[in-house]
Amino acid sequence: MPVRHRRPLARFNRASMICLTGAALLATSVAARSEESPAGLWRVEDGKALIRIVDCGGKYWGVVAWEKSPGIDRKNPNPALRSRPTLGMPVLLALTPDQSGEWRGRIYNAEDGQTYDSNVKLAGAGHLRVEGCVLGIMCGGETWSRAAGQAVAAAGHQPPAHGTTGTARAKRSIADETPTQVCSGIGRR
Predict the structure, then answer these.
(1) pLDDT tens digits for range 47-100
(2) Single pTM value for the model
(3) How far is CA 183 from the centre of its chain?
(4) Using a CB cutoff of 8 Å and minimum separation of 24, what contacts does 148-154 make?
(5) Same domain, 55 and 92
(6) Residue range of the domain that includes 97
């Protein structure tokens, strides 16, 4: 009888080891993919803003998660959007990966109210190269640095306790929202 118990237990141990090994490989693969994507919190080159990039179903969107000085989208070509706050505003629009390891889409520049073709690529450990192009030939850009998850709090910016989303719910930091919340808010920002 003890032999019968050992065989199922031995099978269970082998099966457990296979499952654990598979889980470890999957976790390693997921971690490697997240390091190879632009998703995360990024500090712009001049340090005046943090951009949160999330994967919204295979397209990456970047929204302003923190800014040193609150701004308004005054130069937006749509008059209805000229009074919207820049905090929470989408700036990287529907980036999709290409074969060269870059992401392509559009980028909105609130400083001039224009939207440009965009190329985004990882540029070494903890850096992201972001470029906007006119007619695909005149390009300009900057290199962003990965920010820690607590960077918004460390930067001294928390939404005011009395702020609301307009639905009487307390306003929360975009850096604290889940990717699903960020993605679902893109069309309303």
Answers:
(1) 999 999 999 999 999 999 999 999 999 999 999 999 999 999 999 999 999 988
(2) 0.69
(3) 10
(4) 148/41, 149/41, 149/175, 151/41, 151/43, 151/50, 151/66, 151/175, 152/41, 152/50, 152/65, 152/66, 152/176
(5) yes
(6) 40-188
